[in-house]
Amino acid sequence: MGKNYNKLKNTLRSLNLHTVCEEARCPNIGECWGGGEHATATATIMLMGDTCTRGCRFCSVKTAKNPPPLDPEEPYNTAKAIAEWGLDYVVLTSVDRDDMPDGGAEHFAKTVSHLKERNPKILVECLTPDFRGDLKAVEKVALSGLDVYAHNVETVPELQRKVRDPRANFEQSIRVLKHAKEVQPGLISKTSIMLGLGETDEQVYSTMKLLREADVDCLTLGQYMQPTKRHLKVDEYVTPEKFKYWEKVGNDLGFHYTASGPLVRSSYKAGEFFLKNLVEKRKTKAI
């Protein structure tokens, strides 16, 4: 598991922080949290509570129209905990908070700011909601000092209404990703697609092309797994060979990196991929 694993777990409990890694019972938790001699220790913190205002049909997170109010101490506590962990890379994500005027954008921005104050070297990725398409909220996060702006389109355009909450759609998600880079061109942008929901190969390829045309830098593709019987059924278990194929397609289309595999999740070893890619890019520029 690595020496960081137990340290992270204990601090999370004491500060009442949530991680997606635990909430989603991610199969890669030991690998990401543990880090190691040649690995990058990564964790994904879930801000703004564990109750979402939306009800996507693939997701097992609790839903409610009016979740509990935000903890004003959470940005500070999160930064304090992460600074003590010795992480190289942290992913900050959240539930959707449509009950709040800015969707929680200020909460994200404060957390990033506190983190960078305590550890300027740590790499921060924010995996955000779509903020109902509010581009001012997107700007707030994009200008907060983060390194990677992530927002997941989740599936191909043709399956959006079947898979996601009616308040979400592909075009709105693309606008979020594009706007983040328009206001902060140095950002790396990232998104994720689940496979096995009934999409065709043509639809996947077309979606990947649209994402590259929107200047998305990084893409992850993973297998959809039905969390409970109340959620969408798995239409297909995609073979490891097909995932490898999509990884090659992603590289050919020009994504900075494409992580594709049955167990890949949007935050899977994010730091390792990011750092490896960054080092390679710098070496190329130096030659």
Secondary structure layout:
Elements: H1 4-15, E1 18-19, H2 20-23, H3 29-34, E2 42-47, E3 51-52, E4 62-63, H4 74-85, E5 89-94, H5 105-118, E6 123-127, H6 135-142, E7 148-150, H7 160-163, H8 170-183, E8 188-195, H9 201-213, E9 218-223, H10 240-253, E10 257-260, H11 270-286
Parallel strand pairs: 2-5, 3-4, 5-6, 6-7, 7-8, 8-9, 9-10
Antiparallel strand pairs: 1-2
Structure characteristics:
alpha/beta; two-stranded parallel ribbon; 11 helices; about 40% helix
Describe the 3D structure.
This is Lipoyl synthase, mitochondrial. GO terms for molecular function: 4 iron, 4 sulfur cluster binding; lipoate synthase activity; metal ion binding. Its EC number is 2.8.1.8. With 287 residues, the chain is α/β, with parallel strands linked by helices. The chain has 11 helices and 10 strands. The strands form 2 sheets. It has an 8-stranded mixed sheet, with helices on both faces.
**Number of self-contained structural domains:** 1
Tertiary shape: globular
CATH class bucket: Alpha Beta
Largest sheet, strands/sense/barrel: 8 strands, mixed
Radius of gyration: 18 Å
Q: Kindly report the name of the CATH homologous superfamily.
A: Aldolase class I
Distance between the termini: 37 Å
> Unreliable runs, pLDDT <50, ≥5 residues?
none
Domain Radical SAM core: 35-256
Keywords: 4Fe-4S, Iron, Iron-sulfur, Metal-binding, Mitochondrion, S-adenosyl-L-methionine, Transferase
Subcellular location: Mitochondrion
Protein name: Lipoyl synthase, mitochondrial
